[in-house]
Specification:
Helix content is 0%, strand content 49%. With 121 residues, it is mostly beta strands. Strands 2, 4, 5, 6, 9, 10 and 11 form a 7-stranded mixed β-sheet that branches. The chain has a 4-stranded antiparallel β-sheet with strand order 1-3-8-7, with no helix packed on it. A hairpin with a 5-residue loop joins strand 5 and strand 6.
Amino acid sequence: QERLVESGGGSVQEGGSLRLSCVTSERPVSMYNVGWFRQAPEKEREFVAGISWEPKTTYANSAKGRFTLSRENNMVYLQMDNLKPSDTGVYYCAATGRTLVMSNPNDYDYWGQGTQVTVSS
């Protein structure tokens, strides 16, 4: 059973940066389509960004120009710059080897445990 592990969350001031990492346990991450989602308290889980196996990247409008996805050394990185309080939430890494709609959480087969990101004003 594939496992995903996220790391890199923390607390920063508005305008700060964080880099989240996601690693797979069984197969190389390059074999998967990988998405990042976040969930704020009392809100639904929302798509942030995704990188396909090809790789091609996709970003939510809220992330464009501030967040950057990359893949190297069997890790997927989500570089988050110019963070805002509205970026606060638990960030989840998800993966699937199947064709998918990147922004649809139901299309993913594997999920990490999540890492907390808190941005204060």
